[in-house]
Amino acid sequence: MDLNLYTPIVFLIATIAVIIWFLLGLRPALNRTRFLAVLTVIVLWLVIQSNLSLNGFYLDYQANPPRFLLLVLPALISLVLALVFAGKYLAQKLSLKMLTAVHLVRIPVEITLWWLFRAGYVPKLMTFEGGNIDILAGISAVIMLLFAFKPKTKPKALIIWNIASLILVFNIIVRAIFSVPNSLQRLAFEQPNIAISYFPFVLLPSVIVPIVLFAHIISLRKLLSD
Questions:
Q1: pTM, to two decimals
Q2: Radius of gyration of the chain from Cα atoms?
Q3: H/E element holding 159?
Q4: Which of 173, 172, 199, 198 is nearest to 61 (CA)?
Q5: CA distances in angstroms from 68 to 48, 52, 56, 203, 222, listed in the order given
Q6: Which helix (H) or strand (E) holds 32?
Q7: pLDDT digits (tens, 9 = 90+) for 154-196
Q8: How far apart are the first and last CA of the chain?
Q9: With contact defined as beta carbons under 8 Å apart, do 15 and 85 qualify?
Q10: Which are the contacts of 140, defined by CB distance < 8 A and separation ≥ 6?
């Protein structure tokens, strides 16, 4: 990839930070055995996806079914299983403040997407210039952390914020999926989404997006059950 050095560096730092934060948040809720199991799965997933992207696996856009699906389906299936079998327990045990702080990662991610657009690796429609306003979820997460957790504050604001921010996630997911140059492509034919075929940006759909979705869904379950 012909990129400025700071683009992958900023993205990698953001990715590592959110993974560490997520694991630190999980640790008090899980016993040692379960935590080590989760840690092992995440590390293996990172190694597999990094290795595949570094070896050009995702650059074959003619493959059928699209290889892009291997980026997202295993992580989403794992997410669904976690929510089905452990969702209630995790909603009780995990810190709502920790889950809200996860979304700060969306600020550097959206800035990175803008840099990638300027370099010709993603379409404009995946940036805040082109209708993807997911960066607002990251910025507003700061406001939520500052004001929504004060004593006697009602949970309504956090519920509305999580729902609105979840909609923003789905907005960019749809834009990203249908902009990849494969048999599923319906958007951005002039400048398709090829960044996620390369390391480290392959970790956006395979790691960051599932963590963000998990944080929203567990938060809403926690808020609505209180």
A1: 0.96
A2: 17
A3: helix 156-177
A4: 198
A5: 14, 11, 12, 12, 32
A6: helix 32-54
A7: 899 999 999 999 999 999 999 999 999 999 999 999 999 999 9
A8: 48
A9: no
A10: 161, 165
